[in-house]
Design goal:
Layout lengths: L14 E3 L2 E10 L10 E4 L11 E2 L21 E2 L7 E9 L2 E8 L5 E5 L5 E3 L20 E8 L5 E7 L5 E6 L7 E3 L10 E6 L5 E6 L8 E5 L7 E2 L14 E3 L5 E3 L19 E4 L7 E3 L11 E4 L3 E3 L2 E10 L2 E9 L7 E15 L8 E3 L5 E6 L2 E7 L5 E6 L6 E5 L20 E6 L5 E7 L7 E7 L7 E2 L5
Antiparallel strand pairs: 1-2, 2-26, 3-4, 3-31, 5-9, 6-7, 7-8, 8-9, 10-11, 11-12, 12-13, 14-15, 15-16, 16-17, 18-19, 19-20, 20-21, 22-24, 23-24, 24-25, 25-26, 26-27, 28-29, 29-30, 30-31, 32-33, 33-34, 34-35
């Protein structure tokens, strides 16, 4: 489960400290060898961070593996996503063998689409009541707007929707890839500006978390042990030692973590997230506390910033960024016991710059240490890292063997990041979401627009390991 969804993801805000506004200038991946231009290399990284000899990337890519996720049942409705300036595509869920997005028109009915290959899409929308009493000539509009999803296989999953203009949510469950749906008890967003997100560890155990944005009331966390048929309130995170503003990920009913993913851009100061620890509970939420892992020996003394773990059964992967002056490393820790113990599995070095902007009117920025790459975990041994150079170009590095080797490419098709020197943090070109399904397939949300008032998020996808990215909005 990722961050609370919104129409425009805000990956970072300006940070004013000692009269300066701090904003990311960029992170550029620097492996032992990065081929010039759009060339590519494969570079091994030892556990101490040193690189092995580079090898050229093979021209034959391995197909994405879907063996761990059974194919979805065939649907009677098959279509391509509409290309419509009056609608927008929002990601709901991505995992090996399945991708779920919602098409939200400005006027009309929110539609859910399913894919296994990013090419062929099926309309699997749950039942959506149509508004009645509309004036003559007004296009048909539906009540539900789909905002979150969680699938434990290509066939078995849940879709959460907002119930019109109320704070209520609706929940639907499918066991056959969206061919039919069962309605289950919904929850609430807690406020008009709030949201609710869901996650499931298996067919029985799941959770949903409320973020009551703008409200004084507490956020809430609910659990189910029977596939969503009934829900019960979990212990309050805020009153049991944790931070209720962070999204929660459960490994099982007793072990859970709360943290932001290493997807957003943060200045390197104590009040910013991600933090130099991760929140963990091992007793179902009755107690939350800070949890850390040992730094790699070569990075003793470096500042650590923790991302959000991802679990695949009992196997878990936790990404941690370590900064030491102008250098940034991404470490991946592996757990085989549902997050109780962790061991370092992979380490990838990046180079980064943080641009500290002075007060408005000055044109003399200075450079400070610390910036964060964008990270995703697709499988226990498949990791993605995206960096941004000082020119705004992106470099994508992917491993499919737990970090023994990495494939690196200069990405084509991602909008250039444009830092601001106007006293606030420009978001143009910033990546607000990265999710990956395999060594080849991933999608990102990138902010477009030159001003905060005009910015919106565009969804891009890749099927070649990050070399090329195109809008995930195929033409009919």
């Amino acid at each position: 489960m990722g961050m609370p969804p919104s129409r425009v993801e805000r990956p970072f805000a300006s940070v004013r400290l000692r009269g300066r506004v701090v904003v990311l200038l960029g992170t550029v991946l620097s492996l032992a060898v990065i081929a010039a231009g759009c060339g590519s290399t494969s570079v091994g990284v030892r556990s101490d961070g040193s690189a092995t000899s580079p090898t050229q990337r093979s021209s034959v890519e391995q197909p994405a593996s879907t063996s761990s996720v059974p194919p979805a049942a065939s649907s009677t409705t098959t279509s391509t996503l509409p290309s419509n300036a009056d609608s927008s595509i929002h990601p709901l869920f991505l995992a090996p063998g399945v991708g779920i997005v919602a098409d939200d028109p400005n006027i009309g009915c929110s539609t859910v689409y399913w894919t296994a290959d990013f090419v062929h899409w099926q309309d699997i929308s749950p039942p959506n009541p149509v508004l009645t009493g509309l004036p003559a000539g007004v296009p048909v509009q539906c009540i539900y707007i789909w905002t979150s999803a969680s699938f434990v296989s290509a066939n078995d999953g849940w879709i959460l929707g907002r119930d019109g203009g109320s704070t209520d949510t609706v929940l639907f469950h499918t066991l056959n890839g969206g061919k039919s749906w069962n309605k289950e008890p919904g929850g609430a967003t807690g406020s008009n500006g709030g949201s609710e997100v869901i996650g499931f560890a298996d067919l029985s155990f799941g959770w949903r978390q409320q973020f009551a944005t703008g409200a004084n009331g507490p956020d809430s966390l609910e659990l189910t042990t029977n596939g969503g048929t009934t829900w019960s309130a979990a212990p309050s995170i805020a009153t049991h030692g944790g931070d209720q503003n962070l999204p929660v990920v459960f490994a099982n009913p007793t072990v859970a973590f709360a943290a932001k993913p290493l997807t957003y851009v943060y200045a390197m100061f104590p009040d910013d997230n991600p933090a130099p620890w991760i929140w963990r509970t091992t007793d179902g939420g009755n107690h939350w506390s800070h949890f850390t892992v040992p730094a790699p020996p070569t990075l003793a003394g470096a500042t650590a910033f923790y991302g959000q773990p991802r679990f695949f059964g009992q196997a878990g992967v936790l990404p941690v960024a370590f900064t030491n002056r102008s250098a940034t490393w991404v470490a991946f820790y592996r757990s085989s016991d549902s997050g109780i113990t962790w061991q370092l599995q992979a380490l990838l070095r990046t180079h980064s710059d943080l641009l500290a902007l002075p007060d408005v009117g000055s044109t003399a920025p200075t450079h400070l240490a610390g910036a964060f790459p964008v990270v995703a975990v697709a499988a226990p041994s498949t990791f993605w890292v995206i960096g941004t150079s000082t020119t705004g170009a992106r470099t994508v590095s992917v491993t499919n063997d737990g970090g023994a080797t990495w494939k690196s490419d200069i990405a084509a098709g991602i909008p250039t990041y444009k830092p601001s020197v106007q006293g606030y943090a420009s978001q143009e070109g910033s990546v607000s979401l990265l999710q990956a399904a395999s060594p080849d397939r991933a999608w990102i949300q990138v902010i477009e627009g030159s001003s905060i008032d005009s910015q919106s998020a565009v969804l891009l996808s890749t099927q070649d390991g990050g070399r090329t990215w195109t809008p995930l909005q195929p033409s009919p």
